[in-house]
Write a structure and sequence with these properties.
Layout (H helix, E strand, L loop, with lengths): L4 E5 L2 E4 H13 L16 H10 L12 H35 L6 H15 L3 H11 L3 H22 L7 H10 L5 E2 L2 E9 L2 H12 L4 H8 L3 H5 L3 E6 L5 H7 L7 E7 L2 E11 L2 E2 L2 H34 L1 E3 L52
Antiparallel strand pairs: 1-2, 1-9, 3-8, 4-5, 4-7, 6-7
Helix pairs in contact: 1-3, 2-3, 3-6, 4-6, 7-12, 8-9
InterPro entries: PPIase_dom_sf, PPIase_PpiC, PrsA_foldase, Trigger_fact/SurA_dom_sf
Organism: Solirubrobacter ginsenosidimutans
GO molecular function: peptidyl-prolyl cis-trans isomerase activity
Length: 374
């Protein structure tokens, strides 16, 4: 391991100079332009002193924050920044290395075009862009590097999924036959209802309707269901199987325009009438074909990406050695990664993480919105 490096990837060094630079960027990206990187080399003496100065005096009767507690905070902050920066710098090497292996490249013209577009969107005024560079600690070369890696990531992804959008008619038909319920619409019925707390009140509501009172009048007087009450008792498009069990059975066995109830349910007593019936329907294979095709294309592409990322991560982790004090889960000699439901941050099929702290400034630099999420 070269003495001036924090890690090597396939024999290529990640220099301490780059690490220190991006560590300062990460600290500033926390939202505090003058934020300093915690100082492990001096056992966090400066960091503790700064925190002590910024820590307000405790309220009466409350204990004073100890130096040991402040030191713990400093160490936690440093470890978080260190891991984020190492992840970023290692990802640069992994993605560039994979691009070289796959013979994927981007030209300087492509990088400049993407950079200019994003810069114009994020910073209409050049003065704002220069201010961002000053406050973030980044250089234009840093941003161009991130834009380049972002473009490489996209090209790698395109190459991985190329040809995976081919779906046969047989596969579409098989999916349709196994998932017919997904392309069916159940019977639906529009209703007018009155819901009451007890049967006696429900009987009164039904008697009023039988005598010719309007649904709006009866619902307003007797119903406890605010939604249907406000609509004159209307309850539109209820699908079979979605109502309370007792009510569902009664509704879908009732004749149209016949007054029914009271029906006892867990919510109270219903008096209702069915005002419209929409018959159940089933999409044909021809009607569902395009939707199924898109679904299978997406599944095939995602499967290809998942397989690739798993292999990519293993291959490049095996090529990554980290110096003592700089080991992370991306290092062959580092701790095991904590399982998460998301893809690895160095997944080259996703956009490159462009800010080591994952906290973009108020006005973002070009490509600063990219995040390594699935």
């Amino acid at each position: 391991m070269p003495g001036n490096s924090v890690a090597t990837v396939d024999g290529e060094a990640v220099s301490k100079t780059d690490f220190s630079h991006w560590l300062a960027v990460a600290a500033k990206s926390s939202g505090q332009p003058n934020a300093a990187v915690p100082d492990p080399e001096s056992d966090y003496v400066k960091c503790v002193a700064a925190k002590r100065k910024a820590t307000p005096a405790p309220a009466k009767g409350q204990p004073k924050v100890t130096d040991a507690q402040l030191k713990t905070q400093c160490k936690q902050e440093y470890d978080q920044l260190r891991n984020q920066v190492l992840q970023l710098l290692i990802s640069f090497k992994w993605i560039q290395g994979e691009a070289d292996t796959m013979k994927v490249a981007v030209t300087d013209a492509e990088v400049k075009k993407s950079f200019d577009t994003q810069k114009k969107q994020s910073f209409p005024k050049d003065a704002d862009y220069k201010k961002f560079l000053s406050t973030s600690g980044q250089t234009e070369a840093d941003i161009l590097q991130r834009v380049k890696l972002d473009l490489l990531s996209n090209k790698i992804r395109d190459k991985v999924v190329k040809g995976k959008d081919t779906v046969s008619d047989a596969a579409i038909a098989d999916f349709y036959n196994k998932n017919k319920a997904r392309f069916a619409q159940p019977e639906k019925r529009d209703l007018r209802v009155v819901l009451t707390k007890d049967k006696a009140t429900a009987d009164k509501a039904r008697a009023a309707l039988d005598s010719g009172d309007s649904w709006a009048t009866v619902a307003k007087k007797y119903s406890i269901d605010d939604t249907s009450k406000a609509a004159g008792g209307k309850l539109p498009a209820q699908a079979k199987g979605t109502l309370d069990k007792e009510l569902d059975t009664a509704v879908f066995s009732a004749s149209k325009n016949e007054l029914e109830g009271p029906i006892k349910t867990q919510y109270g007593y219903y008096v209702f009438t069915v005002t419209a019936i929409t018959a159940a329907s089933q999409q044909t294979l021809a009607e569902a074909k395009e939707t199924i095709k898109q679904t299978l294309q997406s599944q095939n592409q995602q499967k290809a990406l998942d397989t690739f990322v798993k292999d990519f991560t293993k291959r490049w982790k095996d090529k990554t050695e980290c110096s003592k004090g700089y080991t992370t889960s991306d290092c062959k000699n580092g701790p095991k990664a904590t399982p998460t439901p998301t893809a690895p941050a160095t997944d080259p099929t996703q956009q490159v993480p462009t800010d080591p702290s994952q906290q973009a400034p108020t006005q973002e630099a070009p490509a600063a919105t990219a995040t390594p999420s699935k």
